[in-house]
Recover the amino acids of this structure.
């Protein structure tokens, strides 16, 4: 089967690496891809927003499966367009992708189905939103309704910050995503990411992960798209996984089906674990980035049959095998990220780094020029490793990082520190 993967980040390189290893994959294409993905797939300069062009490419290359990496094309309905053209695509339809595309939609679904989540209200008017903020008090959380590339959520520790967030969102700070907003209760506890594969009716738990969102060591500094991740998440015990499936995931799938928009694809539940159990912070309708990078390193089974089974409604009693060993990924970013940074700086030592035992290097933002690899974005490399423990995975990943010569890059040196402290605590 010929497969087309859409996207260009570290998540897509990890998916390309795993798909390319499948005996079911004949030719693998990626649009638009990056310099690392080009080692596993043939990169093509397709405009993913141009659905007619994607369909024409699929027909020309006899594509049997399209795998969509990022959320924007899903929310824009690429899966609907492909399905209408008779082309199988992994991922939710636009109506099902509202689970990520509209925070208000998801909150209403939780309320109607008694799914545990932060108390909330939806607003289209600044005065009403501020009155609610005043009534509830700080800390409180203000979220733009639509897709805002991570910039639409403000965890406000003071009333002034919350009011400023309302003004920022309604003032056009996140564009059309801010036509409506949600104000919700501040939750405390430990965060975890939980991934399930869904076929409209059935859900197969994948694995758990935790990420580090802040730019600097000790979880300090500005929020980013993610500076590293590890899997499994020690906080997610078997009992909590069962509760998450019963109290959050299955009721969501039933509700989506009842609304006429069954959910197919990967569902990524961002959870807050507190004394009462798991609460849903948000859904994403695709693999996390960089969490996907650690999930694929732990997945022993071929990924392609799993993706096909999700598309075809065949996940009931589907079994996936996992390596018990943890995996960890360190994001190397351009200096200045998540603010402004230089592009085009050269990176050396990747071959030596990839030779470290247990290590895979996924490219998140690179391009090749004159035989050199150049940084081409904020998050640039995902140096990933599996090990017998999180500590070993971390040591391997940093041994590889230390072989990479890229003076204009930086990374955190403490990815996984909480999980490693737990390992040490358990002796
Ligand atoms: P979201 O995009 O909704 O996942 O929000 C981004 C981040 O903001 C989450 O990963 C949490 O760290 C934080 N966050 C979102 N909602 C809440 C909440 N209700 N209480 C506390 N923290 C939150």
């Amino acid at each position: 089967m010929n497969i087309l993967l859409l996207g260009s980040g570290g998540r897509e390189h990890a998916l390309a690496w795993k798909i390319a290893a499948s005996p079911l994959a004949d030719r693998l294409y990626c649009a638009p891809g990056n310099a690392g993905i080009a080692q596993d797939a043939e990169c093509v300069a397709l405009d993913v927003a141009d659905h007619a062009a994607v369909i024409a490419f699929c027909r020309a290359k006899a594509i049997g499966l399209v795998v969509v990496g990022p959320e924007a094309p899903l929310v824009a309905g690429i899966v609907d367009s492909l399905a209408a053209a008779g082309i199988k695509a992994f991922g939710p339809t636009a109506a099902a992708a509202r689970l990520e595309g509209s925070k208000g939609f998801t909150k209403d679904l939780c309320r109607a189905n008694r799914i545990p989540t932060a108390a909330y209200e939806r607003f289209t008017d600044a005065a009403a939103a501020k009155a609610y903020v005043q009534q509830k008090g700080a800390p409180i959380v203000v979220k733009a309704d639509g897709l805002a590339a991570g910039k639409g959520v403000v965890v406000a520790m003071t009333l002034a910050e919350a009011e400023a967030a309302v003004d920022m969102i309604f003032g056009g700070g996140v564009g059309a995503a801010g036509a409506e907003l949600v104000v919700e209760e501040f939750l405390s506890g430990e965060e975890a990411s939980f991934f399930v594969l869904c076929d409209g009716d059935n859900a197969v738990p994948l694995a758990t992960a935790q990420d580090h969102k802040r730019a600097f060591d000790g979880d300090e500094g500005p929020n980013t798209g993610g500076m590293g991740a590890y899997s499994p998440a020690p906080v997610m015990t078997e009992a909590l996984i069962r509760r998450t499936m019963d109290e959050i995931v299955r009721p969501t799938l039933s509700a989506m089906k009842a609304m006429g928009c069954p959910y197919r694809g990967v569902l990524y539940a961002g959870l807050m674990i507190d004394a009462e159990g798991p609460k849903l912070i948000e859904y994403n309708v695709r693999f996390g980035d960089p969490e996907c990078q650690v999930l694929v390193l732990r997945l022993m089974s071929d990924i392609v049959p799993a993706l096909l089974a999700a598309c075809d409604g065949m996940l009931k009693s589907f079994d996936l095998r996992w390596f018990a060993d943890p995996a960890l990924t360190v994001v190397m970013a351009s200096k200045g990220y998540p603010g402004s940074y230089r592009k085009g700086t050269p990176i050396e030592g990747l071959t030596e780094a990839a030779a470290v035992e247990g290590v895979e290097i996924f490219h998140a933002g690179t391009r090749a020029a004159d035989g050199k690899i150049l940084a081409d974005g904020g998050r640039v490399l995902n140096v990933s490793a599996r090990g017998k423990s999180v500590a070993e995975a971390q040591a391997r990943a940093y041994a590889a990082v230390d072989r990479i010569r890229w003076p204009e890059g930086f990374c955190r040196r403490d990815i996984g520190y909480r999980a490693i402290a737990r390992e040490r605590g358990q002796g």
Observations:
- The chain has a mean pLDDT of 96.
- The chain is about 30% helix and 30% strand.
- The radius of gyration is 21 Å.
